[in-house]
Write a structure and sequence with these properties.
Layout (H helix, E strand, L loop, with lengths): L18 E4 L4 E9 L16 E9 L1 E9 L23 H23 L23 H10 L16 H13 L10 E5 L1 H15 L7 H4 L7 E5 L10 E2 L5 E6 L8 E5 L2 E14 L6 E2 L3
Helix pairs in contact: 3-4
């Protein structure tokens, strides 16, 4: 087994951007409350002002699954025969445990991170046909696009990302930070971007502010004189959008997610089938608190 090499898998890192809620209902409901001005100059007459309004919010979960199979007998006549066993049941051979722990579970996490949580666009499956990549749920980029089209999110006008000058890229992030609602200036938030932009930002900060910065993401990913940090995520792919929101405004719904690491194993003839299903969804409680660039 020490001579079985593989590429690194992506982890499900983007979950840290969201507040997790585990529930059985497939729809999560809440309401945004709004209050208008109340204080006025005194007079004896009753002159009421102020309204309290409620805007309903719903976030949906999507049903996802894993179906796969293997034929362990095919390994017996190969160099990988050491993964097979002497018993008659291939489901009890060492290959199965290695397959699940080393390949299946990490691949599920990578699929969710790269294709679903960020850029996923839900498409109902065709009966009898495996679902397409990135079609099991609406990712956060898709949710933002929908809310922007509806007018619930108003993008911050930033223009195109500076293409080559990393110092100008740092200024781009700083300008973005300055345009956030001032009520949230002192609230710690993460400005989410692609991994490419994060690396360019760190190099640009060194170029702009000099030798006191070291290009170390754990030290230098802050936006100067703010409570904001810059962090790149694989789920952003090649998108040039940057965005942030208070963590309690970003909701990640989960149901039966323990099944991402547990399977119904079904031996059939000489095949071993693995089946699992779970639910996941995400959204934003107050769309107006999602600060995003116009990319």
């Amino acid at each position: 087994m020490r001579r079985l090499y593989q590429l690194l898998f992506r982890t499900l890192q983007s979950e840290e951007l969201f507040t997790p809620i585990v529930q059985d209902d497939t729809i999560w409901r809440a309401s945004q409350t709004l209050q208008t001005r109340l204080v006025q100059a005194y007079q004896a007459a009753f002159t009421p002002i102020g309204n309290t309004t409620f805007n309903p919010v719903t976030i949906a979960m999507y049903h996802q699954k894993v179906d796969t199979k293997a034929t362990p007998h095919d390994l017996e006549a190969s160099w990988l025969g050491f993964l097979t066993g002497e018993g008659v049941k291939p489901s009890e051979w060492p290959f199965i445990r290695w397959w699940i722990e080393v390949k299946i579970i990490p691949q599920i996490q990578e699929d969710l991170e790269l294709y679903e949580i960020g850029s996923g666009v839900r498409a109902e499956p065709t009966a009898g046909t495996a679902g397409a990549q990135g079609a099991s749920m609406n990712g956060y980029l898709t949710v933002m696009n929908t809310l922007t089209t509806a007018g619930s999110i108003v993008p911050i006008t930033m223009g195109a990302i500076p293409a080559t000058d990393n110092a100008l890229l740092v200024k781009y992030f700083e300008d973005f930070a300055d345009q956030l609602d001032k009520r949230y200036w002192k609230l710690p938030m993460t400005i989410v971007c692609s991994e490419t932009l994060e690396r360019r930002y760190l190099r640009g900060k060194r170029d702009k502010y000099g030798k006191d910065t070291r290009g170390d993401a754990s030290i230098d990913n802050t936006i100067e004189n703010t409570s904001l940090i810059v962090k790149g995520y694989a789920s952003m792919g090649s998108s040039t959008r940057i965005w942030c929101t208070p963590k309690d405004n970003a909701i990640m719904l989960k149901k039966r997610t323990q099944n991402e690491k547990a399977f119904d194993m079904q031996p059939f003839e000489r095949e071993v089938k693995l089946l699992s299903d779970f639910w996941r969804g995400l959204g934003f409680v107050i769309p107006g608190l999602v600060f995003r660039s116009d990319q």
